[in-house]
Design a protein that fits this description.
With 183 residues, the chain is an alpha/beta fold. 25% of the residues lie in helices and 17% in strands. The chain is built from 5 helices and 6 strands, in the order βαβββααβαβα. The strands form 2 sheets. A 4-stranded parallel sheet has the order 1-4-5-6, with no helix packed on it. The protein has a two-stranded antiparallel ribbon with strand order 2-3. 26% of the residues are buried.
């Protein structure tokens, strides 16, 4: 029964480099309530989730987020319109946590980026080396919001088709060794 309670989640992290800057990024997720229902549920949770992404809060306590890296999607608040979850994530999270992540959601390419800027999947694959699925979201989630998050797939428009074409070209060339795949 407790294993059936395991389902994919969007694990949302506030970015400490977001304006106005804060010294303390925040975990924006509630631990699933079934984790603490009984000893057996806790045991199943600990077998399937790993405490990752330690964050020090205002009281100087370290808080960790339980993540099932086989099914959960990490959603990092962008620090700016050109953020690709690269530089700020490298300064905030340990490499062993970033290496465990398989799925990540980031804001789609900003139309204000320089044309010479590498695509987001290229920069993400550098700092999140084992990501195999990148979800591009059109509008970034920002700020304190502890509500449950959901992702809905929408039909591709011209912008999304252009991104896909650019991704396919990247995958044929410099991205050929990356684990990132198109859905």
């Amino acid at each position: 029964i407790w294993e059936a309670a395991i389902e994919p989640r969007l694990v949302y992290f506030r970015n400490r480099f977001t304006y106005p800057q804060t010294l303390f990024p925040k975990v924006q997720n509630q631990m699933p309530t079934w984790f603490m229902t009984c000893k057996l549920s806790y045991k199943i949770a600990m077998q399937n989730y790993r405490s990752m992404f330690p964050i020090r809060n205002e009281s100087n306590l370290v808080i960790r987020q339980p993540v099932n890296f086989d099914i959960d999607i990490v959603l990092l608040e962008p620090c700016c319109n050109g953020c690709r979850a690269r530089n700020c994530a490298a300064r905030t999270f340990a490499s062993e946590d970033r290496e465990a992540v398989r799925r990540i959601a980031v804001q789609t390419e900003s139309p204000f980026l320089m044309p010479s800027a590498p695509p987001c999947w290229s920069s993400i694959s550098e700092i999140w080396p084992n990501v195999d699925t990148i979800y591009l979201i059109s509008t970034a989630i920002r700020g304190d919001d502890r509500r449950e998050k959901a992702m809905v797939r929408v039909e591709d428009g011209p912008y999304e088709k252009a991104l896909r074409k650019r991704f396919d070209q990247w995958k044929k060339e410099e991205g050929s060794t990356s684990t990132v795949q198109a859905l």
